[in-house]
Amino acid sequence: MQPFSSTILIVEDNLIVAEDLRNRLNRMGYGVVGTAKNGSLAISMAREKKPDLILMDIQLGTGVSGIEAAKSIKAESSIPIIFLTAYSDDETIEQAKTAEPYGFVVKPFKENDLRSIIEVALYKQRADSEIIENRQWLETTLESIGDGVITTDRSGRVLYLNPVAQELTGWTIEEAHGKPLKNVFHIVDEDSGREQESVVDRVLHANGIIGLVNHTELISREGKKISIADSGAPIRDDNGEIVGVVIVFSDQTDRREAHQALEQNEKKLRQLFNSNPSATFVWERVEDDFKLVEVNAAAEKITDGRASTFIGMMASDIYSDLPLMQQKLDECYQSETPIEFEHHYQNRNQRTYDWIQFKIAPAPPARLLLYADVINEKKKAALALQEEQKRSQQYFEVAEVMMLVLDPKGSIAHINPKGCQILGFQEDEIVGSNWFDRFIPPTNRAQVKAVFQQVMSGDLKPVLHYVNPIIDKTGSLRTIEWHNSLLYDEQDNISGVFSSGRDVTETQQYHKALEESEARYRALFKSSSDAVFMIDPESLDVLDANDRATQLYGYDHNTLLKMKVTELSAEPTKTREAVGSERETIIPLRYHRKADKTVFPVEITASYVDLGGKRINISTIRDISEIKEFQLKLQQAQKMESIGNLAGGIAHDFNNILSSIIGFSQLAMDNTEPGSSIKDDLQEIFQASMRAKELVNQILTFARKSDEEKVILNINDLAQETLTFIRSSLPSSIKIDADISSTYSILASASHIHQVIMNLCTNGAQAMEKDGGTLTITVSNYTSNETPPPGLEHLQPGKYIQIEVSDTGKGIPDTIIDSIFEPYYTTKDIGKGTGIGLSVIHGIVQEYNGDISVVSKVGKGSTFRVLLPATTDKATSKPEKKKDLPGGSERVLFVDDEASVVKLGMRMLAKLGYQVDGETSSLAALERFRQSPERYDLVVSDVTMPELTGIKLIPKLREIRPEIPVILCTGYSSQVSEQDGVLAGANAIIAKPFVKDTLAKMVRTVLDGS
Question: Which residues are registered as beta bridge partners of 53?
Answer without folding.
Answer: 8
